[in-house]
Specification:
Order of helices and strands: EHEEHHEH
Strand order of the largest sheet: 2-3-1-4
Distance between the termini: 41 Å
Shape: globular
Number of strands: 4
CATH class: Alpha Beta
């Protein structure tokens, strides 16, 4: 099975940024308990505070698609849909991941 990553680009309605972030975090806390959900990130555009990416990794496409079709998803994300102006989703197969070596304490010390 191949890990999949979804990237959902969202733009919030003006003035809804803080509530959007809070609602996403609340939904993400529940989604993270689901079978197949590996990781989730919410990132904000450094130049446009209304533009976000929601990035999530799933164990495989089947479990991602099952979540995507579920009533559970609809309930969790209902408020987020109301706060957004637009959304576009793409799904990718993760081919390679290369962790940083700077995470090792000895490497951090050497780079100073």
């Amino acid at each position: 099975m191949t890990t999949v990553r979804t990237v959902l680009a969202m733009r919030t309605r003006e003035g809804c940024e803080q509530r959007f972030e809070a609602e996403w975090l609340s939904a993400a806390e529940k989604i993270r308990t689901l079978d197949g959900c590996l990781h989730q990130d919410l990132v904000r555009d450094a130049d446009d505070p209304r533009s976000y990416l929601i990035i999530s990794d799933w164990a495989d496409r089947e479990r991602l698609d099952a979540f995507g079709r579920s009533e559970h998803r609809d309930l969790l994300l209902q408020v987020i849909r109301e706060l957004r102006e637009s959304a576009q989703r793409h799904t990718y197969q993760v081919l390679h991941s290369v962790p940083s070596q700077l995470g090792k304490s000895s490497d951090v010390e050497e780079s100073r």
